[in-house]
Amino acid sequence: MSYRKHVAIVLLAVAALLLVTGCRDSRRIPMADGRPQITIMVGGLEKVIYLPAMLTERLGNFARNDIDVKLLGEQSGASAETALLTGDVQAVVGFYDHTVDLQAKEQCIQTMVQFADVPGEVELVSAEDAAAITSPKDFAGRKLGVTSLGSSTDFLTQALAGQAGLGTADYTRVKVGAGQTFIAGMNHGGIDAGMTTDPTVAKMVASGEAKILLDMRNEAGTRAALGGLYPAASLYLRCETVESHPDIVQKLANAFVATLRWIEAHSPEEIAAAMPPQYAGGDPQLYVKSIRDSIGMFNGDGLMKPEGAQNVLNILGKYSRNVAPKRDSIDLERTYTNEFVRKALDSRQ
Question: Where does the protein principally reside (predicted)?
Answer without folding.
Answer: periplasm
